[in-house]
Amino acid sequence: MLEIRPNCEACYKDLPAESVDAYICSYECTFCKDCVTDLLHNVCPNCGGGFQPRPVRPKNQHRPGVSLQQQPVSTKTIRSKYDRDQIAQFAETLKHIQPEDR
Predict the structure, then answer these.
(1) How remote is the C-alpha of 29 from its chain's centroid?
(2) Domain spans in the chain, listed from the N-terminal domain onward
(3) Contact 86, 93 (CB under 8 A)
(4) What is the 3-state secondary structure (H, E, C) of the chain?
(5) How far apart are CA 1 and CA 99, in angstroms?
(6) Measured distance CA(84)–CA(87) in Å, rounded
(7) pLDDT digits (tens, 9 = 90+) for 26-81
(8) What is the pTM of this model?
(9) In whole angstroms, what is the distance from residue 12 CA to residue 85 CA?
């Protein structure tokens, strides 16, 4: 089950569970759509992988025990250990390689 982290690791924008602006890599590193596009160029600064839109966890229980109420999202704020310049430099080295070829 995804952790559903509450914020963008680069700009710290809130990304609530229902946000369609949240993007994740395969390690669940979480960034907003603007940072993924403009700063990261689809390169995760933590692993070098690409991003996909984060799924939205259902608010309502459509199956027993499966919803935000039964499985709440994370409240732990995550901040990148890299500054914006380090992130931009790293993305520059990999942005021309498709995620599946990195």
Answers:
(1) 5
(2) 22-95
(3) no
(4) CCCCCCECCCCCCECCCCCCCEEECCCCCEEEHHHHHHHCCCCCCCCCCCCEECCCCCCCCCECCECCCCCCCCCCCCCCCCCHHHHHHHHHHHCCCCHHHC
(5) 23
(6) 5
(7) 999 999 999 999 999 999 999 999 999 999 999 999 999 999 999 999 999 999 99
(8) 0.92
(9) 16
For residues 59 and 25, give the distance between their C-alpha atoms in angstroms, rounded to a whole number.
23
For residue 20, the tally of other CB atoms under 10 A from its CB is 11
Two tokens at 42?
Answer: 């689809």
Q: How far is the C-alpha of 98 from the C-alpha of 102, rounded, in Å? A: 6
Q: 41: how many CB neighbours lie within 10 A of its CB?
A: 15
